[in-house]
Design brief:
The protein has 6 helices and 5 strands. It is α+β, with helices and mostly antiparallel strands. Strand 2 and strand 3 form a beta hairpin. It is globular, with a radius of gyration of 15 Å.
């Protein structure tokens, strides 16, 4: 059954400014148990920084996490986004088309209000699926 993105998205997004160090962003990811942070500037979405971005674009290139900025490593515009009233079917289609696992949810005007992940969609569709179980598992600590 199709739902609206607002019904399945995670509302507690973590955001940093583009000049935030990658080290600080990584600590936020760890502390908040998330795999990404939104990079915002004046409440507008600038980009998305994922744990994979940190590994592939910064660490693998011998970057220094204390001096490298989130804005220089994040996926930058055009970042694919959703509106809260978009359908979960539309979200899944965008993820498939753009080969991404997470999409920021933004209100009109570009203000981020949440994020929807592949795991969120799986849990909404079939709460007993393996992906839903993995997505809802306690963090490794």
């Amino acid at each position: 059954m199709t739902r609206q993105v607002r019904d399945v998205m995670s509302r507690g997004t973590v955001a940093v400014e583009p000049m935030t160090s990658v080290a600080r962003a990584a600590r936020l990811m760890r502390d908040e148990n998330v795999g990404d942070v939104l990079v915002t500037y004046d409440s507008d979405l600038f980009g998305v920084l994922t744990d994979r971005d940190i590994v592939v674009r910064m660490i693998a290139e011998n970057g220094d996490p204390d001096t490298t900025t989130a804005g220089s490593v994040c996926s930058r515009p055009p970042v694919v986004t959703l509106a809260p009233d978009d359908t979960t079917d539309h979200a899944a289609a965008l993820m498939r088309r753009h080969a991404v696992r997470r999409l920021p949810v933004v209100e009109k005007g570009g203000c981020p209000v949440g994020i929807v992940s592949l795991g969120d969609l799986a849990a909404a569709e079939d709460p007993r699926s393996a992906l839903a179980d993995v997505s809802n598992a306690r963090p490794n600590r």
